[in-house]
Amino acid sequence: MHSSREAWFILISIPLYAILIGAEIILSNWQHRRLYSIKSTLQNVYLTLINAGLDFILRTAFYVSILAWSFQHRFFTVENVYLYWFLLFLLEDFAFYVEHRVDHYCRLFWAVHVTHHSSEEFNLTTGFRSSVLQPVYRFVYFIPIALMGFDPLDIVFMYSITQTYGILVHTQYINKMPSWFETIFVSPSHHRVHHASNIRYLDKNMGMCLIIWDKIFGTFQEEVDDDPIRYGLTKPIENDNNPIEVIFHEWRSIGSDLRKKVPLGVKLKYLFMPPGWSHDGSTKTANELRKELSGKPVTE
User: Fold this and answer.
1) Ramachandran class of 232: left when φ > 0, alpha when ψ lies in -120 to 50, beta otherwise
2) Whole-number mean pLDDT of the chain?
3) Domain range for 112
4) Contacts (Cβ under 8 Å, ≥6 apart) of 177
5) In total, how many domains does the chain have?
6) pLDDT digits (tens, 9 = 90+) for 227-252
């Protein structure tokens, strides 16, 4: 269920993506940087197609109806059209930040989101490396926005706009933006940090368009020259040629942990604690790894 406005926006964005991606491929090959491989690029394409198909099915089946019901029971209405769209942008970007932070700090949701981080390449097509199962629950974060008086079709339209921006920051061809821009908005430099597997950079820079949320809530990290970024996961996927493995490898790992002979409370922690948590210290969370690196005692 797409509004005609959203459909037009998608149609306009497709040639934009094609031009920019084509230019980045040509330039990177000309400069012998080899930022793209056929395998990874095809993976990014089929992952986004699966994600889009699932999103369309779930949107049509129920979640727009849930947002519509929420909108009918809204608490208030924003009358000024300029204020309406400005607030919608802020609320939606903040909702994404909250969702993204949950995805990184709760292993159950990380099992969905990890797919997006699994590529060891970082280019414009990496933005299409979708968290395939995210449409199952993403709409839940939009319910409070609908209750605040924002039309569901406007919500999904704004999401398309912000997501487009989120795709375009997946590039290594922009070093730094002007300082005023980097103070307010997510830049390619910020998002390179987000995709890094270096301990310093893990679980940082969660924003889609605005970096201010990370600065307010303590998840901001600058790109550091003497710590060059390594893309991908701290534990690479064993068989990343298998599309099923790319999507479900963390679920298999969770299943293995749940079969351990430990109390129910510990099993639940393997689901809801941050990725890397273990009852015996055999694996560690990002914060535990950072404390070890800095020489501070680990208390988690």
Assistant:
1) left
2) 93
3) 4-176
4) 185, 187, 188, 189
5) 1
6) 999 999 998 888 887 888 999 999 99
CB atoms within 10 A of CB 67: 24
User: Residues 198, 202, 205, CA angle at the centre, nearest 5°?
Assistant: 120
Q: What are phi and psi of 210, to 5 degrees?
A: -105, 130
pLDDT value at residue 297: 53
Q: Which residue has the tokens 């830049």?
A: 187
Q: What is the pTM of this model?
A: 0.92
- Is 265 inside a domain boundary? no
**Spatial CB neighbours of 108, under 8 Å, sequence gap ≥ 6:** 254, 271, 272
User: For residues 177 and 255, what is the distance between their CA atoms, to the nearest angstrom?
Assistant: 43
Complete DSSP assignment for the chain: ---HHHHHHHHHHHHHHHHHHHHHHHHHHHTT-----HHHHHHHHHHHHHHHHHHHHHIIIIIHHHHHHHHHT-S-----HHHHHHHHHHHHHHHHHHHHHHHHHSHHHHHHHHHHH--S--SGGGGG---TTGGGTGGGGGHHHHHTT--HHHHHHHHHHHHHHHHHT--SS-----HHHHHHB--HHHHHHHTB-SGGGTT----SSBSHHHHHHT------TTS---BS-SS--TTTT-HHHHHHHHHHHHHHHHTSS--HHHHHHHHHSPTT--TTSSS--HHHHHHHHHTPPP--
Residue 263 forms part of a structural domain: no
**Are 293 and 198 in contact, with CB atoms under 8 Å apart?**
no
Q: Is residue 240 part of a domain?
A: no
**Residue 238: inside a domain, yes or no?**
no
